[in-house]
Specification:
The structure is a single chain. The protein has about 70 residues and is an all-alpha fold. The longest helix is centred in the last third of the chain and has 29 residues.
Amino acid sequence: MQAAPTMSPAASTSAPAPAPSEVVDRPDPGLARGRWEAPRWAFALIAALTVIGGLVWLAITLRARRAGS
């Protein structure tokens, strides 16, 4: 039979880690919590401009294809 494994001397003499003493205040969940804080309307504006830009690009592309045909 094998003997039961024993703890190493280093593991038995080490003290437990101290408890953290720093208190961290987190912001409320939502859009203002991210890396770049901005009001809600700014995100809506960026999304709307992206959609409008995509539609303009699509219209220009389709117009160029019709003119080339």
